[in-house]
Write a structure and sequence with these properties.
110 residues; mainly alpha; 4 helices
Length: 110
């Protein structure tokens, strides 16, 4: 790869030419350790993060229907944007929301 301004060689993943500083247009993504990526929600769908937390809060049953709704929306968002992560959180929220929504309905019909 060569600089379009000065013609000097440029590394393929370089953000700018080392000689003249002309931007190459390459977008550099930050490298994240896999262990850190499990803790910090980098590259996660925001709805999937919300679905995970609502799945935990659905233990209080009042949040279960909301967890169910947000999880469905999160799975739809993940299907539309395959580069995002968080499917596990969305599925967790979906299962917890479904279980405790059914429990809530059972208690109310009792």
């Amino acid at each position: 790869m060569f600089c379009r301004k000065c013609g000097n060689p440029v590394e393929p993943r370089a953000a700018a030419c080392p000689s003249c500083g002309t931007p190459t247009g390459v977008v550099q993504t930050p490298q994240v350790d896999n262990g850190l990526a499990m803790l910090v929600p980098i590259g996660r769908a925001p709805l999937a993060i919300a679905a995970g937390y609502l799945g935990i809060f659905s233990l209080f049953m009042i949040f279960a229907p909301l967890s169910l709704l947000v999880s469905i929306l999160a799975l739809r968002q993940l299907r539309q944007n395959p580069e995002l992560k968080g499917k596990g959180r969305a599925i967790f929220g979906l299962v917890m929301g479904l279980v405790f929504t059914l429990s809530l309905v059972g208690l109310l019909l009792r």
